[in-house]
Design brief:
- There is one protein chain.
- With about 240 residues, the chain is α+β, with helices and mostly antiparallel strands.
- It has a single domain, classed as archaeoglobus fulgidus dsm 4304 superfamily (archaeoglobus fulgidus dsm 4304 fold, 2-Layer Sandwich), CATH 3.30.2170.
- The chain is built from five helices and eight strands; from the N terminus they run αβββαβαββββαα.
- Strands 3-2-1-4-5-8-7-6 form an eight-stranded mixed sheet, with helices on both faces.
- β6 (about 170-175) and β7 (about 180-185) form a beta hairpin.
- α2 (about 95-110) packs parallel to α3 (about 135-140).
- It is globular and about 50 Å long.
- The protein starts with 15 loop residues before the first helix and ends with a helix.
């Protein structure tokens, strides 16, 4: 596990170009360690955590909350919910969202009493400009397999996704420069697809299988991500009063 995420103290002045260079260097150092293959036995998968964040502004100060919902993979029952919140010190820079989100994610993870076997993020993983979306970047701090599940498409190098057939489980791969970055997945008939990508230590077919096994009639999103998303809305409303 990596030691600590990149942190700026609240009120610290920063140069955006310097941050971009530092962040790029960190991503470049981590990328060779990404393994798009299973480092676990599927039949041993028990607990899956859904992770999401929400933000709000108060008097020009940005705040955020991270919510994690852990479910039993087999029964789909919730076994634990935790959250963290605080001031956001890293500015929003496209392609470097992980640096903004990691401090709150790790703070929430420390509150867990149940150890997830896998983390599923509301966001991208390998489907990223430099293959280092939040699901991939966070894996090095969590030391667990991760999956990215995005509601909207991140267009890279001008490449559009191909719409899958209108049936549950249909998918098309997202291929850029002859490399598969992720997958457009139709989890429910007559509903918009989602975008699945490996985070780390898992392959794309297994990621797709796990996501589909966490789909019910309530949403196109897998249960862990949907529940984490609902929790962030609830906590943002509560904390921003």
């Amino acid at each position: 596990m990596e030691s600590k995420p990149y942190v700026l103290e609240h009120g610290t002045e920063f140069d955006k170009e310097t941050l971009i260079q530092e962040f790029s260097n960190i991503q470049s150092e981590l990328l060779p360690k990404v393994k798009l293959e299973n480092h676990f036995q599927k039949d041993e998968l028990q607990l899956i955590a859904g992770v999401d964040l929400a933000y709000w502004d108060v008097n020009d100060t940005m705040y955020g909350t991270c919510c994690i919902v852990v479910i039993d993979y087999h029964t789909k029952e919730v076994v634990e919910k935790v959250y963290s919140y605080g001031v956001i010190t890293i500015p929003y820079i496209p392609g470097f969202l992980a640096f903004r989100e990691l401090p709150l994610i790790l703070e929430a993870v420390e509150k867990l009493t149940k150890l997830p076997d896998l983390y599923m993020f509301d966001g991208n993983g390998y489907l990223h400009y430099r293959h280092m979306g939040i699901a991939t970047h966070a894996s090095f701090f969590l030391n667990k397999p991760t999956i990215g599940v995005a509601k909207s498409y991140l267009k890279i190098q001008g490449i559009d996704f191909i719409m899958p057939e209108n049936r549950m489980g249909a998918y098309t791969d997202i291929v850029i420069n002859n490399e598969v970055y992720g997958r457009t997945l139709r989890t429910t008939k007559n509903v918009k697809p989602i975008f699945v990508s490996c985070g780390n230590w898992i392959d794309l077919d297994t990621s797709t299988e796990i996501v589909m096994n966490c789909i019910n009639k309530e949403s196109r999103l897998p249960i862990p991500v949907r529940l984490a998303d609902l929790e962030t809305h609830k906590m943002r409303k509560q904390l921003s009063r």
